[in-house]
């Protein structure tokens, strides 16, 4: 059965792939998951992943050999990063960064360096780099300077939903911020009735403030939308936090992604994702 379509929304990064490759990787991971947890003959949906890794400019602040963060372009940028990093893992002022764990650190305040070191100690070497690079992309998404680019991102997601008629969205990492923002703006069609978020940073209060939630620490979707949130407690992007404490409408499921806790494909291969997608398929297309 390939008439049920799923739209997958990736994190803001993903510059080294494209829409075809991304859809193929996600589709194969979801098909493996359904075959493993439901059965080899179980139906898998079609997968579309609107690609927008080309929309935002590449950052220029270098973190190690392969990680970059966006240029701090506006007043308040560094303060947002500080608030988010320290909300993620409060730093210990008496501790110093372990030698070599932070890579080549850009010119930032000692508070940022201390926060990165605290995240490294909690989640492992270079976890702070991963968190900072993703946070810089959140900052870029909400930046007034890049408002037109954020509009492009939301438009690509919306067009994919409309073109495929998808009723289920799977959002990974910062893609969950984009999708929640679209729900908040009333841009997600009412036909969508299932959301799966994986490795989401929506539990962070500074990100909720960026979303301008009327009631901080409270997330809300339309009442007809079922919401499954899947997280690996060792995924640094989630800060080890679920979303069930923020809304009664979300179900948290803890999983183990082994040695790559933030991997989108490993999240897709997890049993709670397979069960939810399969249930959605059978509800939309009951077996005679």
What does this structure look like?
The chain has 9 helices and 8 strands. The chain has 288 residues and is an alpha/beta fold. Strands 2-1-5-6-7-8 form a 6-stranded parallel β-sheet, with helices on both faces. Strands 3-4 form a two-stranded antiparallel ribbon. Helix 3 packs across helix 4. About 10% of the residues have low confidence.
Approximate helicity band: 25-40%
The ordered H/E elements are EHEEEHHHHEHEHEEHH
Main sheet specs:
6 strands, parallel
The low-confidence runs, each spanning 5 or more residues with pLDDT under 50, are 59-75, 96-107
Radius of gyration: 19 Å
Fold blueprint:
Elements: E1 5-9, H1 19-37, E2 46-48, E3 61-63, E4 67-69, H2 77-88, H3 110-123, H4 127-142, H5 147-164, E5 168-172, H6 175-184, E6 194-198, H7 205-210, E7 226-231, E8 250-254, H8 264-268, H9 271-284
Parallel strand pairs: 1-2, 1-5, 5-6, 6-7, 7-8
Antiparallel strand pairs: 3-4
Helix pairs in contact: 1-9, 2-3, 2-4, 3-4
Brief write-up:
The protein has 9 helices and 8 strands.
């Amino acid at each position: 059965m390939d008439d049920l379509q799923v739209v997958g929304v990736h994190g803001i990064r993903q510059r080294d792939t494209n829409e075809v490759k991304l859809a193929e990787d996600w589709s194969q991971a979801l098909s493996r998951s359904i075959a493993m947890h439901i059965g080899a003959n179980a139906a898998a949906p079609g997968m579309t992943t609107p690609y927008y890794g080309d929309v935002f400019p590449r950052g220029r602040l270098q973190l190690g050999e392969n990680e970059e963060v966006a240029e701090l372009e506006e007043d308040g940028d560094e303060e947002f990063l500080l608030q988010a990093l320290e909300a993620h893992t409060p730093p210990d002022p008496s501790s110093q960064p372990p030698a070599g764990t932070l890579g080549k650190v850009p010119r930032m305040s000692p508070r940022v360096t201390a926060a990165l070191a605290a995240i490294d100690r909690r989640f492992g070497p270079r976890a702070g780099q991963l968190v900072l690079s993703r946070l810089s992309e959140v900052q870029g998404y909400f930046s007034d300077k890049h408002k037109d680019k954020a509009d492009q991102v939301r438009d690509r997601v919306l067009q994919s939903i409309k073109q495929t008629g998808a009723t289920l969205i799977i959002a990974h990492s910062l893609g969950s911020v984009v999708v929640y923002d679209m729900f908040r703006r009333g841009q997600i069609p009412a036909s969508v009735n299932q959301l799966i978020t994986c490795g989401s940073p929506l539990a962070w209060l500074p990100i909720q403030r960026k979303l301008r939630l009327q009631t901080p620490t409270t997330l809300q979707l339309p009442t007809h939308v079922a919401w499954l949130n899947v997280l690996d407690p060792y995924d640094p992007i989630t800060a080890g936090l679920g979303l069930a404490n923020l809304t009664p409408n979300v179900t948290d499921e803890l999983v183990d992604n082994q040695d790559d806790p933030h991997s989108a494909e490993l999240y897709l291969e997890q049993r709670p994702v397979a069960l939810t997608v399969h249930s959605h398929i059978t509800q939309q297309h009951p077996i005679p």
